[in-house]
Amino acid sequence: MVTAANALNISSAGLVKFDGTATFSGVTTTQHDVLIGSASNGITNVAPSATSGVALISQGAAADPTFGTVVVAGGGTGAVTLTGVLTGNGTSAITASTVTQHGVLVGGASNAVSSTAVGSTGQVLQANSAADPTYSTATFPSTATSTGTILRADGTNWSATTATYPNTTTSQQILYSSAANTVGGLATGNSLLAATNSSGTLAMRAFSVNTQVFTATGTYTPTTGMLYCIIEVIGSGGGSGGCATTGATTIATAGGGGGGGYARGTFSSATIGASQAVTVGAAGTAGTAGANNGGTGGTVSVGALISATGGAGGAGSTASGNPVFGGGGGGTGTGGDFQSSGQPGGFGFGSVQATNSFLIGGYGGASVLSGGGTSSSNGAANAASSYGSGGGGGSIFTNAGQIAGVAGAKGIVIIREYIIN
Length: 421
Description:
Layout: E1 8-10, E2 16-18, E3 34-37, E4 43-46, E5 54-57, E6 66-72, E7 80-81, E8 85-87, E9 93-95, E10 105-107, E11 113-115, E12 125-128, E13 131-135, E14 151-153, E15 158-160, E16 174-179, E17 182-186, E18 192-196, E19 202-214, E20 218-220, E21 226-234, E22 252-253, E23 262-268, H1 269-272, E24 276-280, E25 300-302, E26 306-308, E27 324-325, E28 333-335, E29 338-340, E30 348-351, E31 358-360, E32 395-396, E33 412-420
Antiparallel strand pairs: 1-2, 3-4, 5-6, 6-7, 8-9, 10-11, 12-13, 14-15, 16-17, 18-19, 19-33, 20-24, 21-23, 21-33, 22-32, 23-29, 24-25, 25-26, 26-28, 27-30, 30-31
C-alpha cells in the first residue's frame, strides 16, 4: 500500500512521480538490483553480478539484459579493459595481450595478438619467414631526393647518391660521367672508340693510323686529332772510296761506306706541339777518282727530340801489291726509346800473285732497313740501294786507270700517327 508519506501524485500529463521515498508494494528487491520492465507493464528486477565492474548487456527484445564480462576499469572513468575474451563471429577469439606504444600488432599463435618492438627512425619492417616481422638493421631515407638519384649502401645504411642517373638507356649505350655528379649516356657507333679529344671531351670517335714520310728536309705538322706518334729516323749512308791508277804489280781496293744510325721513339701530341722541323742530311758522296775517301752521310733529325748520324765514308785505295783499306764506321742514334748503330762498311783488300792474284772492294754498310751497296772484284761497285745504306767499294787489277767510289743512300724520317677524331 502507498502510505500518505509516499503517496503517488498524478500529474496533468499523466506521469507518475513519487513524493518522498517511494516503495513498490509486491516487488521484492535486493540492494543494488537493476529494475527493468516486465510483461503487462510490470516491474521486475535483475540481481547485480557478483563480479565487480561488469556491464549490463542487452540480449535483444526477447530476453532481459544480463551482466556481461566487459567492465569499465577504475569505477567507470578509464579506458575499456579486456578482462577475458572478446567473442566474435563464429568461435574464434582474440586473447588480450600487452602491447608496446608505437609497436606494430602482429598475429600470434591461437589467434593471439602481440606487438613488435619499436624500430629506429628509418628502419623498415621485413618479413621473417616463420617468425614475427622484424625491423631492418640498415635505415632507409623516408623521402625521395632529387630526380635520378639511387639508393647506395654506405657500409652501414642505405642512402641516396649525390650523382644522378638516367631513367632509360638504349642498346649498346655507354654510361659515363657527363658532368660533376651526373651520369649520362653515350651512344655507340660502328668501328668507333670512346675516347677524349685534345680538350678532354669524351665522345665516340673514329680511330685511324696515318704515316708521314720525309726523304727531304721539311716540317712535320701533326694530323688533326693525333694523340701520339712513333718516329723513326735513319741517318744517311756514307760513300765509298775511289781507287788510284795501278801498275804492272799493283792493285787497288777501296773501302765501303758505313750505314746510317737509327733511333725510334714514341711522342705525345703535347710533346710534338704545333710542328717540328725535319732535317734529312745529304747522302755521303762518292770518293772521287783516285785514292780519295768517300763522304760521310748527313744527320737526320726531328727537332731536338730524336736524331741519327750518317755513316762515315769508306777509305780510298792507293795502288799496292797487298792493299787493305777500311770501310766507314756506322752512324749512331740519339733520343727516343731505342737506338741502333749502322753497319760499318767492309774492308777492301787483295794481293798480287805471280799466277793467281785476287782482290775485292769493301761492301757498303747496311742500315736498319736494308743492306748496303755490293762490292766489286774488278771495277766500280754498286751504289747503295735503300735508305741510309753505305755505298760499296770498287777495286781494280794491275795496269788499270783510277776509278771513283759510289755514293751512299739518303736517310729517312718515318712518322706513324695514331689519330682519334
